[in-house]
Inverse folding.
């Protein structure tokens, strides 16, 4: 190994050139690469006995697997909510790996740059400086960390330090929400609250947003109960928003922790026409915003913002590790989030924010919203489709005009046909019990032409479906 790895060291320049060439070629042709090719039935490689070096690994990757890589970073991958990577973010991410700094070191330059990136993000989203930010691996971990900080706060309200005593010292904590993302419920399991502690408040009629009156009734009926309200700022099906300002107002009369899951909906703050949707969020206790979605930095990256750093510290501090110093005296992100050793995730975000600024991101968000609305208009105007909800932001949620009993199969067949076509990738969902399709547009590359290409493809494929009504 030693010989081989040191030979690689001598060849660093050629090796990095090979990685660069591959990346360059991939990105230059990304629009022609199928959006959703899967791979099945592959043999698993064994651990090599001998060291063959990095070129060997690259060769194996290029010959065995590269032909199957899909273009999920491309302009017409509209499944889930999947951003791409801006050129500047890619540079930042490469440098992150090359430098391999541990962002747990508060004396390193990475610490200053993480603070700076979070400062720029607060400016981008219009969040007060009073929010402590922290990079984590994704919105799931951000939701987890926000809820865990709320759990701590609820205990402290009652004189119980859950970080020290454990959850059982307090007992049941309810998480109250109307349309929570699955990761909120997953977090409840991870945190020991249990999935059954979720209280679902009804939505407003025909909406995914919480009925605030019913939320208030619940709070009034359970005055003693420790409650986290998990508000949705952008549901995944229809990008509906809970009325955050109205929920904040309830804090005057009821005691609860307000967490806002704004994984991608938080980007409404960048749009003059959509900013009102997050009105009041600057008074939430904790906020989740994803970076690998609409910020278009590579996986895996998200932010947690909270107004209660002292509670966060109680949850996440490394207490009693002599070599780490006193967490209360020396600020370190390690003591405010789940990870100890930390990737320098702030750097790709820092690069992209410095490169494109407020104007660049505003243009991106505005353009994606316009494209989603355009697609929504196409769908609404064609009676082979049925738009299931108004296009609030960046997601089009629709289904096919097919007899109810055939709809599930038709939707599956249609999605498969689109995927096989390789032009566009959308994903399945259920909306109000109806088998449906989602297209989520949050990629910086998407253009007017992409929307036209997709709409053409959608019409062609719908023609081919059997048994239409
Ligand atoms: C994507 C998403 C999450 C989970 O985010 P990950 O980055 O996949 O961990 C949570 N909430 C909402 C609203 C999301 O869209």
């Amino acid at each position: 190994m030693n010989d081989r790895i040191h030979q690689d060291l001598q060849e660093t320049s050629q090796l990095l050139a090979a990685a660069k060439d591959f990346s360059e070629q991939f990105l230059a042709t990304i629009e022609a690469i199928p959006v959703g090719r899967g791979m099945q039935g592959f043999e698993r490689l064994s651990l090599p006995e001998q060291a063959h070096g990095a070129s060997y690994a690259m060769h194996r990757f290029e010959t065995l697997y590269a032909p199957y890589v899909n273009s999920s970073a491309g302009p017409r991958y509209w499944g889930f909510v999947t951003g791409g990577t801006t050129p500047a973010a890619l540079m930042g991410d490469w440098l992150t790996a090359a430098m391999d700094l541990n962002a747990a070191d508060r004396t390193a330059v990475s610490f200053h740059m993480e603070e700076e990136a979070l400062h720029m993000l607060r400016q981008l989203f219009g969040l007060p400086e009073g929010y402590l930010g922290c990079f984590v691996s994704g919105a799931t971990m951000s939701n987890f960390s926000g809820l865990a900080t709320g759990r701590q706060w609820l205990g402290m309200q009652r004189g119980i330090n859950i970080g020290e005593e454990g959850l059982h010292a307090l007992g049941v904590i309810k998480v109250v929400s109307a349309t929570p993302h699955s990761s909120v419920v997953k977090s409840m399991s991870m945190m020991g609250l249990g999935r059954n502690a979720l209280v679902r408040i009804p939505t407003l009629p025909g909406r995914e947003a919480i009925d605030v009156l019913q939320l208030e009734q619940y709070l009034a009926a359970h005055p003693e109960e420790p409650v986290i309200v998990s508000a949705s700022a952008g549901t995944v099906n229809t990008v509906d928003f809970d009325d955050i300002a109205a929920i904040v107002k309830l804090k005057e009369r009821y005691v609860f922790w307000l967490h806002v899951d704004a994984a991608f909906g938080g980007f409404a703050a960048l749009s003059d026409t959509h900013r009102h949707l997050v009105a009041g969020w600057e008074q939430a206790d904790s906020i989740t915003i994803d970076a690998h979605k609409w910020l278009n930095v590579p996986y895996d990256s998200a932010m947690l913002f909270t107004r209660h750093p002292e509670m966060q510290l109680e949850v996440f501090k490394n207490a009693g590790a002599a070599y780490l110093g006193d967490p209360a005296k020396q600020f370190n992100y390690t003591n405010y989030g789940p990870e100890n050793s930390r990737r320098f995730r702030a750097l790709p975000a820092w690069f992209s924010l410095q490169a494109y600024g407020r104007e660049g991101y505003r243009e991106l968000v505005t353009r994606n919203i316009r494209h989603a609305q355009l697609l929504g208009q196409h769908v609404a105007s064609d009676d082979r489709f049925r738009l299931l909800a108004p296009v609030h932001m960046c997601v089009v949620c629709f289904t096919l005009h097919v007899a109810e009993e055939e709809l599930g199969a038709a939707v599956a067949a249609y999605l498969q046909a689109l995927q096989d076509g390789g032009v566009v990738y959308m994903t399945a969902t259920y909306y109000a019990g109806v088998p449906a399709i989602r297209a989520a547009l949050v990629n910086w590359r998407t253009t007017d032409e992409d929307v036209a290409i997709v709409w053409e493809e959608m019409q062609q494929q719908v023609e081919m479906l059997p048994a239409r009504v």
